[in-house]
Amino acid sequence: MTATKATKYIFVTGGVVSSLGKGLAAASIGALLEGHGYTVSLQKFDPYINVDPGTMSPYQHGEVYVTDDGGETDLDLGHYERFTHSTPSKQSNWTTGKIYLSVINKERRGDYLGRTVQVIPHITNEIKDAIRAAAKDVDIALVEIGGTVGDIESLPFLEAIRQFRQDVGRDNTLYMHLTLVPFIGAAGELKTKPTQHSVRDLRSIGIQPDILLCRTDRFLDPDLKRKIALFCDVNEEAVITAKDVPSIYEVPLVLKAEGADRIVLKYLHLPETQSNMRDWEDLVDRIKHPTDELTIHVVGKYVGYEDSYKSLNEALYHGGFKHQLKVNIKWIEAEALEEQNGASLLEGSDGILVPGGFGDRGTRGMMVAARYAREHKVPYFGICYGFQMATVEYARNVAGLADADTTECAPDTPNKVIYKLRDLLGVDELGGTMRLGSYPCELAPGSLARQIYGTALIHERHRHRYEFNCLYEKALTDRGMAISGRSPDGKFVEIAEVPGHPWFLAVQFHPEFKSKPTRPHPLFAAFVEASYRHKTQAAHATTETVA
User: Fold this and answer.
1) Which has the closest alpha carbon to 79: 147, 27, 19?
2) Which of 81, 384, 441, 442 is catalytic?
3) Is 242 found in the same domain as 381?
4) Cα–Cα distance for residue pair 205/493, rounded to 1 Å
5) Active-site position among 512, 521, 529, 534
6) Is the pLDDT of residue 59 over 50?
7) Catalytic one of 177, 510, 521, 534
8) Is 510 considered catalytic here?
9) CATH number for the domain including 378?
C-alpha cells in the first residue's frame, strides 16, 4: 500500500541501559505496520568506530548478520528480516567508523572544496543521506539508533535525527523511545525515575519523544502511565507497556494489544487501515501449544555467548514451529569433545548441529561431533565450518587420508581438503575480504538437498575465507560421500551429504540468515523433522528392548 507520497520516518532510541530490545521493538512495529498494508524499511546506526562488525569477536558483538549484497552487519538486522518482508542491505547498517570513513574519503578527494570539515554539518549530513538512501520506495522507514541516550558516541546520530524532523516536517517523523521501568522487590513497586531521567537526557539535546515503550515485567496500570505521561510530557495513550514475554514472537501482539500500531498511524497522519495479524496469531498459538519436544546438541566455538549464534538459534526454533515441536538447544563447547571420553557429551542427542567459526580452537571437537553423528546414525547438520570439518573428518576416517586437514589450522598439511579461496591468495586484510553475500547453487538430481528444497537452483548467503578442494572430491565420493550442491560454474562445492545415513547434510553457506518464523528455512525444517524421527525411533527401540 502506498497511502502517502512522502515517506514517514520512525526513529527508535533507547535509554537507561543497553540491551533493552530496541531492535526487537523496531522489528515488531514494522510487523504491525505491514499488517496494516504499509511497506516498511528498517535501518540501524551503531555508535562504535569499527567500520562494520566483520572483524569483531563474537563474544564482543554477537553474530555478524550477512545480507544478500554481502554486508557484514549488526544482528538486529536479523530481527528486521525475520519479523518483516524488508530485505536489508549494506545501506541498512551504518557505524560511526563507516560514516567517518565516507566523510574522510570525500575530504581526500576534495569534495568539500577546501572547507573545514566538521561534525555539524558534514557528519550529520552524511547520516541523514544514509537515512534517505535506505528509505526509498517505502511508506514508512524505521531507524534504530544504537547505544543508550547519554552516551557521548551516540550524539552525532541523535543530532542528525533531531535535524531530520526540520528537514522533512513534523507530520512525517515520529520519535519512539524505549526505556526501563524496573520493579524493585524490596519496595514492592515499579519505579518511573529511570524513565524520567532518560527522557530528560533526550529532551536536553532537542528531541521530545512522541511515544514511550516502557520495558517492564508487568503491565503498567493507568495511574503509573498517567504519572509517566505527566513527567515526560507525552500523551497518556502514548505510554505503552513493552512487557517481558516468553517468546520474542509475542512482542508484536503485545504491542498491538496496547494500541501501538493505532497510535503510530495516528501520529504519522496515516489512515488506520484494517489490521491483519492472523499469521502471527497462528504462529504464537503453535509456539504456546507444542505437541512434543526434542533436543538438538549444538557444538560450537562461542557457546558461552548465545548471541554469537542468534540467527541459528531462531532458525532451529522456526524448524520446530513448522512441526509444532518445541526445540531445546543443548550447547556443547567444541573443545570439550577433544577431552578423553568427550564424545559422551553427545549421548542422548536427537540431532547434532555444528555451526560456523574461525580459527583452530575446537576444530578437532567439531570432527568428533561429525564422526559421532555419522557412526551413530544421528541426524547431522553442518554449516560453514561444520561443513568443512565434516568433509575433513570423512577424508581422515573413511577415505583413509589420515593427515587430511584445512590449511586454516594446518597450513603445511600434505592433504589440503580445505584450503584458502583461490581469489584470496595474497590478500592479508581481514575486513570484508571473504566470499560474502548471496550466490547461486545447483542441486544434484535425486539428492537429499534437492528433495528438501524442491527445486534445482537455490540462492544462499555466504561468509567464508576457505573452500573445499575439488581435487579431493573423487577420494571422498568413491568412499560414499555425495557432492549434492555446487556453484553453476562448478568452481565451489556447496553441499555434501552421506547417502544411506538417516540425515547427514553439510553446507558451506549460512541458511539461518533466510529463515523466518512464519516461513522456516527448508533445511532447518527438514533437520528438525529428521531429529524428531530419530528421537521417536530411539524411544520405540528402547520400549521394544524393555518388552
Assistant:
1) 27
2) 384
3) no
4) 54
5) 512
6) yes
7) 510
8) yes
9) 3.40.50.880
